Prior knowledge:
Number of helices: 14
CATH architecture of the largest domain: Orthogonal Bundle
Amino acid sequence: MKIDFDSTYFNPTHTLDCGQVFRFSPYKDGYLVNSADKIAYVYSDGVKTVIDSDEPDYFYNYFDLERDYSEIVNMASAFDIPLLTKSANACKGLRILNQNREEMIYSFIISQNNNIPRIKGIISRICERLGEKRSSPFGDYFAFPSSSALADADISVFTSAGAGYRDAYLKETSQRICAEGIAHLEALGSKELREKLLSYKGIGPKVADCVALFGFRKMDSFPVDTWIEKVYVEDFKGTLKGREKIAKYLTDTFGENSGYVQQYLFYGKRLNL
DNA sequence: TACCAGGACGTGC
DNA sequence: GCACGTCATGGT
Length: 273
């Protein structure tokens, strides 16, 4: 089943390449996108962006298609910060995804002190080895492993996939989630969720903010990594020391718009706009 | 070779 | 509470 959307505010490249998602690959005129155990083919002709999937409802929500991103771009421009205005207008089609929560937890544990191409490779190999094989009109693929599959796996699976020292974090946190589930996280407010996430092995402030933002849609989260730290120093002329203090300053400044602003700035800085 | 990448943990103070 | 060393791995 296909659904289409105005491509001005839905650009597959911007949306997938901005660092919020790690499981996608070029395919024909666009990309194959994997989330949890699902797959979609997304492509654009410059006028319409099309989602082709057996799970249209899931991906309608996944790509946040109910939201009007013209308002988001206007909001970002209104702050009158050069990099932010430039990035928001160059990346009008960047949308914040609603991703699978457990997948976000494990993916961003892997992301720490790592780079995006390598993160994608590690996740891909873990899916191949522990995820269920599925078939689709676009070919076979692997689902993201369940927490029980991760918890039961020998730790060497993570190590040999390239996870390095993060192997023990994956093992320990998957065992905890396998035992506790994550349903109790869903009702929490941003602050309480962040605190709870920090109690998992391998989740620190930055990873917690990414999980809260991309998995739980807590838009008052502002993940501060090396790139945002660079933005803070170079573009904001900030003088605060320490990522936690910088994150507090940025969430105080941008409030419920933090998540959108963060992605524009992160992607814009990486693209050297 | 040393440094960097969507940092977090353990220890010492 | 804060500072600091350490933790795999691949690319530049």
